Description:
Blueprint: E1 6-11, E2 21-27, E3 30-36, H1 55-58, E4 68-70, E5 79-81, H2 84-101, E6 107-111, H3 118-132, E7 136-138, H4 144-154, E8 170-174, H5 178-181, H6 186-194, E9 198-202, E10 215-217, H7 224-237, H8 243-249, E11 250-251, H9 253-260, H10 265-272, H11 276-288, E12 292-296, H12 306-320, E13 329-331, E14 357-359, H13 363-367, E15 376-380, H14 384-387, H15 391-398, E16 404-409, E17 421-424, E18 433-436, E19 442-446, H16 459-469, H17 481-489, H18 498-507, E20 509-511, E21 533-534, H19 538-542, H20 562-567, E22 570-573, E23 599-602, H21 604-609, E24 617-621, E25 626-633, E26 641-643, E27 680-685
Parallel strand pairs: 6-15, 7-14, 8-9, 8-12, 9-10, 11-21, 12-13, 15-16, 16-17, 22-26, 23-25
Antiparallel strand pairs: 1-2, 2-3, 4-5, 4-17, 18-19, 19-20, 22-27, 24-25, 24-27
Amino acid sequence: MEMEEGVSRGVCPHDCPDTCSVIATVGDGRLIGLRGDPDHPVTAGYLCAKYARAHERVYAPDRLLHPLRRVGRKGEGRFRRIGWDAAIGEIARRWRGIVATAGPQAILPFFGSGNEGLVQGRISGRRFFNRLGTLQLDRTICTKAGRTAYIHTMGSSAMADPTMAHEAELIVLWGVNPASTNLHHLPLLKRARAEGAAIVVVNPTRIGGIPEPEIWLRPRPGTDAAVALAVMHVILREGWHDRDFIADFTFGFPALEERLHAYSPRRAAAIADVPAADIERLARLYADRRRSLIHVGPGCLRHGNAGATMRAIACLPALTGAWLQPGGGLYLPTSTAFPFDWSVLDGDELRPNTGRRYNMVHLAHHLLDATKPVSSLYVFDGNPAVTLYNQSQVRRGLMRDDLFTVVHELRMTDTARFADIVLPATTPFEHSDIQFSYYRPELLLNRPAIAPVGEARSNRDVFRTLASALGFSEPCLRTTAEEVVTEVVNHPLLPLDAAERAALLRDGRVTLRTEPIDRRFRHDVPASSRPRIALHAPLLAAQGLDPLPGYMPPQESREATPERFARFPLSFLTPSAHSTLNANQGGEPALRRAEARPLLWINPADARDRNLADGDPVRIHNDRGHCRMWARVTEDTRPGVVVAAGQWWERCYPDGMIPNFTTPDFVADMGGGSAFNSNLVDVTSATAP
Length: 689
């Protein structure tokens, strides 16, 4: 694709609802600067701190510019430069041998959310590994349990429109921190407050950037379902529910009503450690202000009971009829909210064998399973040596001398240090792509602004080259990124007409025409065509799960594991940082000016109990592992909860151990989702014996 000197329009490729439209400035073939597109309705001319300096990554001194072969021990980080032909030749030779002796499912692909572009982040890798016949990755790390539960409740992923938040009378921010994870949503929240809306926060830690909430409920981590059930209990007890909506648009209400008798505010208060009076206040506010929006974030959905939690929260709008109101109901930021099933582009028809998937949370289990040995690992758009849990096991797997590991990366990440072959990757400014937003139904093109620096190649180009080296002849594996973009735009199932497709290719973005969800919940719709919300979900019962919303303690908690709780009495949360994006930027000093070193938020009461002062070095530990950082004594987290924001690389910690050495790798109750927030630890002075 021809590159334009002066400016180039693209899109931020990171896993964020905002999906910002970006304008890059180019001079003499070099990227000079970035700014947000002032004409884009969400970006509105500004970028968050996590991407505003992304152009500095292009020319960073530690950027990988050439293929490398390991010459030291795994994890040591010693490599020697080789050529692309040698690198591709070695990968193809090793993989042909593995396929011949152990079969293609002894090769594992692993990719995270380092690039959310459809071409570079999804289609290219999935098609290639389908054709190779490997196991395919099931991406579960974020909100898989929650979105599975939501679909079981609502029948689809259709959600409230978050861009209508300014019209709400009440906004409940439940387990979400928009200032750090959805920055361009803040103006709508502030506008709503200015126009009289009430704001409620349900979060064990303080969130920033929003007006002071009317209510701040700080439940013990993993107990959110009990709060939601008690709110519904009060609404039914007082007769505040919308009987007509329940009759016309739900099923299973009698069973739910019976279940809710057991969840009084007093019982929920004892479970969640919140005042019963605040639960009563929230119930009254939610019932009084029917034009309400619940914005659910991943914070409450990374527990072993995440599915049950989402079921309980998702039933709240059904009791009050909030779905009847424009912008009312519930919004959960998740990729399945976009009205198109991208899996049709994954190339399942290319497989030479029966397709099987593996849960990304259990990468270590596969690497260490002697009964079904994995011989090779290919990592792109991910950094599992930071992002995955129970890291002692992950590192054991990555250290295997007989595991042939290839990592395609921008920098020498913690994972790349374990690789046998490291391939240099392009930045978004050096390749073509197309991306969808899960904040509004929009498609955006990413056009390259500059030529690749050094010998960097995009995911698409690497998989094309590997396909050729392995003798794959399918045309869809040989096409360029630009040709795949055109294929996506012209897909017959994509809900765009000819004029909209042309506008997308011409202007770089287009918004899909979708029916607002409140138009689906109308009493004048024939009964046979009405959506039905499953307050009681028979499909869950068929899977051996509770068909009703309910509360069960997280796998690690004072109820479920009292002996463990006695040893490790603090819940350890690891939410997103404000100025760095997960493991993508965890090793970049230039992007950590606001967060100079890893900090552990600890409540003053917990600090006093452990003789800790602000700034003290501390050791966070349990029987899985430990890490060290520095104490930040603050009321911003509730007693019993310690918080370390962001995922820094190991070199940023005093002893090279990261928080995920302590986190569990068990999965949630639905969808195989992650449960790393169900993590009990204790904290001591790092200088103590």
